[in-house]
């Protein structure tokens, strides 16, 4: 009878050990999957640095083959695309037919080449002032439509290019991009 009791305890111990082994194995597999996913996300998001360097090399090779720097329709020089973010969002009120609306726009400037990037960065306060002037003339009813937003982008681009031509002698900015647009 003593043997029966010992066998029962051993059976329970074996079940406890196998249950613990299964739990441990599941935990190890989960940790490995999480680490693999984290590493994959890191390389996917941070691995783009090499691609941009090779893109810059391709752009340089294309420029050297043509012998001169080409111009884009907007007047900005061709080169690698660089984005100059506005340091803070534009927040303002616009009148509407029913009521005034609050608008917040986050913007970035598309420029080509390092010289244009430096020019744009140097004149950020002037560009912000110009954009705020254009934005504050908008109408809430127009901004509620896609066509109204596109028209605002075009007006913004024309105003920024005009002011940059007056100050720097060339248009510098190829596009004004809205990276955030909220209207309440």
Automatic annotation (TrEMBL):
Q: Which InterPro entries match?
A: FliL
Q: Which family does it belong to?
A: Belongs to the FliL family.
Chief site of localization: membrane
Name of the featured protein: Flagellar protein FliL
Give the GO cellular component terms, alphabetically: bacterial-type flagellum basal body; plasma membrane
- Keywords in alphabetical order: Cell inner membrane, Cell membrane, Cell projection, Chemotaxis, Cilium, Flagellar rotation, Flagellum, Membrane, Transmembrane, Transmembrane helix
What is the originating organism of this protein? Colwellia psychrerythraea (Vibrio psychroerythus)
| Membrane topology, as annotated | Single-pass membrane protein
Q: From its record, what is one biological process in GO terms?
A: chemotaxis
Q: What does this protein do?
A: Controls the rotational direction of flagella during chemotaxis.
Q: NCBIfam families from the entry?
A: PRK05696.1
Q: Name one Pfam family in it.
A: FliL
Q: Which domain of life is it from?
A: Bacteria
| Cell compartments where the protein resides | Cell inner membrane; Cell membrane
> Transmembrane stretches, by residue range?
24-45
